[in-house]
Amino acid sequence: MAFAIPLALSGGSMFKDLFIWWEEDILLKGALEGVKDMIEITKEMFDFATASFFGEVEVKHDIYEMDKSVNVLEVEIRKKVYEHLSMNPKQDITSSLVLTTIVIDIERIGDYSKNIYELSLIYTPESGTRCYEEAKRLSQHVNAFLSQIGKAVENGDVESARKLMEEKNWICKKCEGIIKEIVIDEAIKVRAAVVYSLMFRYLKRASAHIGNIASSIVNPFYRIGFKPE
């Protein structure tokens, strides 16, 4: 399945960005399929990590082996892009730069998924508390974002990507607000405060990286990771 990658060489608006389908170039097509695989594995990692944290694991996975698979794909994608540009140095530069940029964000989401899983190894959260319910709710949002970003990248869907950027801002602000509440809450136990502060931090960062990927669809290359102009 091919992906649509924006060719935003100039500073034009998102509505003027052009999209091209890579069906003929074997290297780029392989790189794009690798991006799809990275997103799918990363989503599985996040699913498993959050299920582990909330004590809802149905199928056991080796998250570290999954992480290795993501890393291998990242290297393979960079290699394919490099080989493509070596043979076609004047073609598709922006699309190639976008690919090598978003794989970093995908890999980082996998890292934060590992961090969440590692929290589950040292702490069993108490259900019914406000922190528990908020963490679970926000985890479900980030999970949905991962599904949506995969489709948005695959289809070059600017509107969906823009919506994800907006929702990412909400998630980040919500997580930051809860962390501040935890810090000033004298009733919360120290261990719970530390774990949940980390949990909300990881959710915030994972959401931010999803927003960066979405911005690669909406923005010209030099504004990836920033608000649309």
UniProtKB/TrEMBL annotation:
Residues 36-118, 136-216 form the PhoU domain. One of its GO terms (biological process) is intracellular phosphate ion homeostasis. InterPro entries: PhoU, PhoU-like_sf, PhoU_dom. Gene3D superfamilies: Phosphate transport system protein phou homolog 2, domain 2 (1.20.58.220). It comes from the Bacteria. PANTHER family: PHOSPHATE-SPECIFIC TRANSPORT SYSTEM ACCESSORY PROTEIN PHOU. This is PhoU domain-containing protein. It comes from candidate division WOR-3 bacterium JGI_Cruoil_03_44_89.
